[in-house]
Amino acid sequence: MGRRWHLAVLSLIGFVTSFGAHVVAVNLPVYAREVGVGLAVIGLLIAVYDFAEVLAKPVFGYVADKRGKKVTLLLGLGVFSVASASFLLVDPRLLILVRLLQGLGAAAFSVISLSLVAEYFAEGRGRAYGVYNAAKGAGYVVSPAVGGAIVWATDFRAIFAVSFAIGLAALLLALTLPEPARAAGWEDDDDLSVREFLLAFANQTLLPWYGIIVVNMFLASILFGFLPVYASSLGYDQLLVGALTALATLSYLVVQPLAGLAADRAAPARTVMLGLLVASLGIVALPFATGWTLTAVVVAAGLGVGTVWTNTDTLVSRLVARSALAAGIGAAGSFKEIGDMVGPLAVGVLAQAVGLRAGFVLCGALSLAGLLAVGRRAWSARAALAD
Fold first, then answer.
1. pTM of the predicted model, to two decimals?
2. CA-atom Rg of the chain in angstroms
3. Which fold has domain 3-178?
4. Domain 198-384 adopts which CATH fold?
5. What DSSP state is assigned to residue 203?
């Protein structure tokens, strides 16, 4: 099997990550009506999946470095698939447990698939990450339409049958992936240690890039979560609101392979800083824009967020020691989830207190301040890029 096949399989696994999360989330109102629960339960069911990923990603990354990446990948896909199938058999009120198990499985194969991209692509890594992230992002795009169509044609349970099917397909294809050769030093130290596990979060070279990741996900969650709110406040109908949101997503997707190619050909640190600056300014400008100007701002913000997403994956994979590759990527994954959770909360609270426009501006200003605060340290760390 060649590298293209490996990337195709890993990209499918990335797709399963996002599809599995969102195909359920967007249809939870149907579940709520069927079971008779309220908005608080919907929020809890969305949060528990993310919560599992925040806690489990660094753990599975560390375990994979010690016990093997392929076996951890297969374990995660197996847990996700079994959890998905279990909802067809259990009381629907146990969905929160099913979502927790799905999230734990997704945490494992999300982190390990990212680290395997780095293992298989020592050369052309940025481009490979761009392709992987574009495929993963496609899951966010197609899951609402596919999930809605499945529920409309059958029922809510059917989306778990589909999740089981794609999880199982990914697992079977993952069996064809080779286990990476072990890095020097692994054979001498296979013991699990809490202290060693925590080192990924205390790495002084990685810390500023973790900060950049949080800021970027903070912006991404605001763009994708509150653009529809702002567009609706302008009096746009749902068709136009959906088109604008889709345009933001499309911009984010399309730029990722190009951004990855740029990471291979130029200094990825410079590309990250430029992308984050564009995304921050886009969030600040968004609530002042209408019509075609709003379209241009949305596209620019999507391009900025997508550029940072792919290039930070590339940078983290180069900065961390190969013997701790999955642990470093797992820690980065936790920081992504933190930014993803904090962004909507921050803009929501600020918008409620001082208005939607001021909420966007303040959040954009916070991201610019974060860029200034961690940017110098991150820039100085670029010289430490590992082969």
1. 0.77
2. 20
3. Growth Hormone; Chain: A; (1.20.1250)
4. Growth Hormone; Chain: A; (1.20.1250)
5. -
